[in-house]
Amino acid sequence: MKFPLTIAAIALAALMSPADAAALRDEGDPLASARWADMHKSMLAGAPVLFDPRVKVVAPSTAENPMQVPVSVDATALPGVVEVLVFADFNPIVQVLRFYPDAAPAFLGFRIKLQQSSPVRAAVRTADGVWHVGGTWVNTVGGGCTAPSAAAVSPEWQKRLNEVSGRQWSEGPNAGRIRLRIVHPMDTGLVAGTPAFHLEEVNITDAAGKRLMRVQPYEPVSENPVFTLQRDAASGPVEASGRDNNGNAFTARIAP
To answer: How many independent structural domains does the chain possess?
Structure first.
């Protein structure tokens, strides 16, 4: 069924490729989720929305491990990206993370927990206040949000809490790519006797102190999170810093 576009959407479609313009819509959830109306209201406050094929969410159609579901969000084809919100319709904790691509392309890779099969979506806010939404269905056996972390049975994790390891590529096809791993249990608070304990901010800055990206993870991000981002040019080291919801802070330098 083809849905009509608003005047604003028609104007936007005129600037897009014919294939992308044909897929653009401002109503009628392409993923046919029973919870979309709730998501639009609670996550996006009912603001203007366009389902936009330029917002690409890549994840496996079937995830064998619901505690470690790889996801990447690529909104680099959209100009003027201000904020990206990632959420999963049927998770008990819907919000997954937010990121703000200050001086980096609007791309981020990470892993998440899923409690059951669900659409995983990215809503990308541009400078005009419109949310551009893309997403994909991920099928899984479930239980990812209510299973205890591996750290819960290990006496070593407290010694390594917020330990950061990373890599930056300076040449080849991955030039400009940055990847970091942070040791953290990322407890959801949904396991009996285990309170919510998660990273709440990660900042990536360049050698001059200019922030490339700010990430706000929520409880559904996987244990020992790995974040992958891109910079336009690899020119010196970057610094990763942040904190968790208990005030534990970290800082690390990642060289090319």
So the answer is: 1
